[in-house]
Write a structure and sequence with these properties.
heterodimer; A: 191 residues; 2 domains; two-stranded antiparallel sheet; two-stranded antiparallel ribbon; 6 helices; 5 strands; 8% strand; B: 579 residues; mainly alpha
Chain lengths: 191, 579
């Protein structure tokens, strides 16, 4: 058994080097060489300033902006240094209250909206607390409000939504969606 | 369910099915020491490793030496990982300046990664340095997966060889698993993931300006967003392929940097089941009758597809909390709809349910949605799949050796019922094998039920519960199910980062891993000595549809009998309350 122990310790050391140092460094090298933008966080830059990451949502609450998913991160929403979901169970009274408050906030500020109900992704918090997307339904739901606060027509805003919206990947995978940060940056650039 | 849900799930199953044979055959070549297309590249590295560590590649071990080598290797890995976490404050590659990890948490994480559980008591981006993740987590992701695969191969040799004493060489089986299978697959997957947006850098966090400043909980204005990054892709690739599941970030593969696009999601969820499913074919090929492997694969797939359908149906439905407000949860062309609490828009309800089913059928435990926020039935599916012992594909290696325990029980019970000598693959199944197989089935049941019972009657255990009522009980039951079966996913509302849970769950993981691994090797040691009985008219066929049905029934009945009472107190009562 003594010989096995020696072999085992040497192998542990060698595999620590191979899988713990060589492998991650090789992946880092390939990533930085061929996918530099993606490997460093898909950062959006405008005028030399970093405006956020394409993949990480930001908090929006002003009526002139589209709002993203509710976020459960602390101490403020969309804290990308500490991802978190709400973990509310379906019968948790606190969850029910939170949903009710969100529905009221949305129906209150989107009074001129004639859609049947609030799209579910707008009143439920995302898994990561950093979800960059909302559904297309959720964007259209907010279009009248945003148009009113920006002095645009609803058609103009809807056109912009369609422009930013992403279809299912390769027409099959995932769900159609709108990137909230990109949509809001595009809105700000309209004027 | 929309047509796109069916399409994506169908495509997932189809691609998985198509990959089983080529990958399974390749792995059989690897374990039988034959030349493969990677041999010119990897062969020299393999021989060099053996030379440095003083190994002879053709040296064989009996089951006890095999088991002791495996235990020693895993224990040494556990100690190394523990030490790394305790010392990370003074070690390099720590751009976030994270401090030393508390002893109970470091023990929990070390036990968790060594045992291929990868339960996340830690919060990835705020607790563990890059060095701990690379040298510690990533290394154990490879080695614990390779350990499981080696044990399966050793057990397979117990069926293949006759009148022998040895079952292979642990170091060789383990090394080949890493060098020929896990490492090349991870390298390819990691690079594809980076192309989709998974980050891979050694630099510290990115800082960006918020478009609209926000107030934090203390009323302070926040103008900047600090975005955690790191060497993520390399860790994520192996955590998916090796049924590890421990995330780089707190929210695992729900985080946009671990799983940014629907394509990354498809590949990562495919990676969960890829090796476990293909190992069925490897097994069939090694025992000389691929029909045996396909029969086991079929039994697993039947259970998987049924569970998957239930989960997708439940999660595509309405969250009970939405019953009182004017919310539109119906699936349409412009939204996925369904129960979106704790889910990401890019995945929607169907892909979240698919992942939840796959990750708990296998012993992966990574998540792309929060299981704690699933509907009662939607949450029952992953919990029960774990409790079945993770034999539906299961962990790499461990899933199939767990399923082989059920096979032994199935042929034994069938033999008793019709009065024939129970045998499998020509090997007589006798009292010793049955005792070991029973251990493999019963140990996790004991760990789960006793662990849960202790936790819910002690104040320390109850203190961790987050959601009130029956759901709180489910959180505890899920935690011990996950640890006792080496899954690693959670009803994550539970505050498990306390000394009580860290130690209790850490122990459950170690018992749940090694009290199955050792009996599996003991079965191999016993079977390898036996002669093969020639096939006769009295032999029960173990590749017929009847056998597939019988094996499925045994797994379901054992799982139902063991856990129905506990599940009644959790998700079942919760579902009934809704009405």
């Amino acid at each position: 058994m003594g010989r096995q122990i020696r072999s085992g310790l040497v192998l542990l050391g060698l595999f620590t080097v191979i899988t713990g140092i060589v492998y991650p460094l090789v992946v880092t090298g390939i990533a930085q060489a061929f996918f530099h933008r993606q490997a460093n966080g898909s950062i959006i830059t405008a005028n030399g300033e970093s405006n956020g990451s394409e993949l990480i949502g930001q908090p929006f609450s002003a009526p002139k902006y589209f709002w993203g998913r509710p976020s459960a991160t602390s101490p403020f929403p969309y804290n990308a240094a500490s991802s978190a979901g709400s973990n509310y169970g379906p019968f948790n009274p606190a969850f029910r209250e939170a949903v009710q408050a969100r529905v009221e906030a949305l129906t209150g500020s989107d009074l001129d909206n004639d859609r049947a109900g609030v799209p579910v992704d707008l009143v439920t918090s995302s898994a990561s607390g950093l979800d960059p997307h909302i559904s297309i339904a959720a964007a259209r739901y907010q279009a009248p409000r945003v148009a009113r606060y920006r002095g645009l027509s609803v058609e103009q805003v809807n056109l912009l939504i369609d422009h930013i919206a992403e279809d299912r990947q390769f027409g099959i995978f995932g769900e159609p969606r709108v990137n909230v940060l990109q949509l809001n940056l595009a809105l700000d650039q309209l004027k | 369910m929309t047509i796109f849900d069916w399409l994506q799930i169908g495509l997932y199953l189809l691609v998985l099915l198509l990959l089983v044979k080529p990958l399974g055959a390749y792995m059989a070549h690897v374990y039988e020491g034959e030349r493969t297309f990677l041999s010119p590249l990897v062969g020299p590295v393999e021989r060099l490793l053996y030379r440095i560590s003083g190994l002879r590649g053709d040296e064989e071990m009996d089951w006890k030496t095999y088991a002791l080598s495996m235990l020693f290797f895993n224990f040494a890995g556990l100690l190394l990982l523990y030490a790394l976490q305790r010392l990370q404050g003074v070690l390099p590659l720590n751009p976030q300046d994270l401090g030393t990890v508390r002893p109970d948490l470091a023990f929990n994480a070390a036990a968790s990664f060594a045992s291929n559980t990868n339960w996340q008591s830690y919060s990835g981006e705020t607790t563990m340095s890059y060095l701990s993740k690379m040298l510690g987590f990533t290394v154990q992701n490879f080695l614990s997966a390779a350990t499981g695969m080696a044990i399966l191969v050793a057990m397979t040799r117990g069926f293949v060889r006759q009148s022998a004493r040895t079952i292979g060489n642990f170091w060789v089986d383990m090394s080949r698993s890493v060098l020929y299978i896990l490492l090349p697959l991870s390298l390819v997957l990691a690079v594809i993931l980076v192309s989709q947006g998974v980050v891979q850098t050694l630099d510290g966090s990115q800082v960006v300006r918020l478009v609209e400043p926000v107030r934090d909980a203390n009323g302070q204005t926040v103008n900047q967003q600090v975005i955690a990054v790191g060497p993520v892709a390399s860790e994520v690739a192996i955590k998916q392929l090796g049924t590890n599941g421990g995330g780089f970030f707190n929210v695992n593969s729900a985080h946009p940097f671990e799983n940014p696009t629907p394509l990354s999601n498809f590949l990562e969820s495919l990676a969960i089941l890829l090796i476990p499913a293909a190992l069925c074919y490897t097994f069939g090929k090694m025992v000389g009758d691929t029909r045996k492997g396909w029969a086991i694969f079929a039994a697993m797939t039947i259970i998987f597809v049924v569970m998957l359908s239930v989960a997708v149906w439940a999660e595509q439905g309405r969250n009970p909390a939405m019953g009182f407000v004017n919310v539109d949860h119906r699936a349409s062309r412009v939204q996925s709809g369904g129960n979106m609490e704790g889910k990401e828009v890019r995945f929607g309800a169907a892909n979240s349910a698919l992942w939840a089913t796959a990750t708990t059928a296998a012993s992966n435990g990574s998540v792309n949605s929060m299981h704690d926020s699933f509907t009662p039935i939607g949450g029952l599916v992953p919990m029960w799949l774990i409790q079945l012992g993770e034999v539906v594909y299961g962990g790499v290696g461990s899933g199939l050796y767990g399923m082989l325990a059920f096979v032994i029980i199935a042929v034994f019970v069938a033999g008793l019922m019709i009065g024939r000598t129970p045998e499998y693959l020509g090997k007589k199944i006798e009292a010793y094998e049955m005792k070991m197989a029973s251990l493999m089935v019963l140990v996790p049941v004991l760990l789960v039920l006793f662990g849960t019972a202790i936790a819910v009657v002690t104040p320390m255990g109850r203190a961790g519960i987050f959601n009130p009522g029956a759901h709180g009980f489910s959180e505890v039951l899920y935690a011990f199910s996950s640890a006792g079966n080496n899954n690693g996913s959670a009803f994550a509302g539970i505050m498990a980062n306390t000394p009580f849970y860290n130690i209790a769950l850490g122990l459950a993981m170690l018992f749940g891993r090694y009290w199955l691994a050792i009996p599996a090797l003991a079965i191999a040691g016993s079977l390898v000595q036996k002669k093969k009985i020639p096939i006769s008219a009295g032999t029960l066929p173990t590749h017929s549809p009847l056998f597939v049905f019988w094996l499925t029934a045994v797994v379901i009945i054992v799982g139902a009998l063991s856990f129905f009472p506990a599940l009644s107190l959790g998700p079942i009562v919760e579902q009934l309350l809704e009405r």
